[in-house]
């Protein structure tokens, strides 16, 4: 079922239930509970089952990896507003972390390219991968922008 049809049927159900008493309406419409957060805060343990869920980066890790004004401004503002650093687990980040796990570091250096349109999540995918690297004692050299 497409998301539009689902929303339309849900909205129609809500409209129909308004005519009933509160008890009947509550029995008729049961909202589904969706897990928004993953229980794993370590990116090493993230799997494809966690894609689309949020995980919280510990404040100490965030402060060590990303000093003030290194992260994108909009993301810094969200983190300051909610007093925590939540990152959505994306499929490209899971793939990149899997490549890092399976890499043979006795061979020549492997280079990974994260690409996509503006605003598609490249920076936060990189932040997710950097959190994995930090937790697994990789040496990290982060250059947020070569133009600054």
TrEMBL record:
<dbReference type="InterPro" id="IPR027417">
    <property type="entry name" value="P-loop_NTPase"/>
</dbReference>
<dbReference type="InterPro" id="IPR019368">
    <property type="entry name" value="Ribosomal_mS29"/>
</dbReference>
<dbReference type="GO" id="GO:0006915">
    <property type="term" value="P:apoptotic process"/>
</dbReference>
<keyword id="KW-0496">Mitochondrion</keyword>
<keyword id="KW-0689">Ribosomal protein</keyword>
<dbReference type="GO" id="GO:0005763">
    <property type="term" value="C:mitochondrial small ribosomal subunit"/>
</dbReference>
<dbReference type="InterPro" id="IPR008092">
    <property type="entry name" value="Ribosomal_mS29_met"/>
</dbReference>
<dbReference type="GO" id="GO:0003735">
    <property type="term" value="F:structural constituent of ribosome"/>
</dbReference>
<keyword id="KW-0809">Transit peptide</keyword>
<keyword id="KW-0687">Ribonucleoprotein</keyword>
<dbReference type="Pfam" id="PF10236">
    <property type="entry name" value="DAP3"/>
</dbReference>
<protein>
    <recommendedName>
        <fullName>Small ribosomal subunit protein mS29</fullName>
    </recommendedName>
</protein>
<comment type="similarity">
    <text>Belongs to the mitochondrion-specific ribosomal protein mS29 family.</text>
</comment>
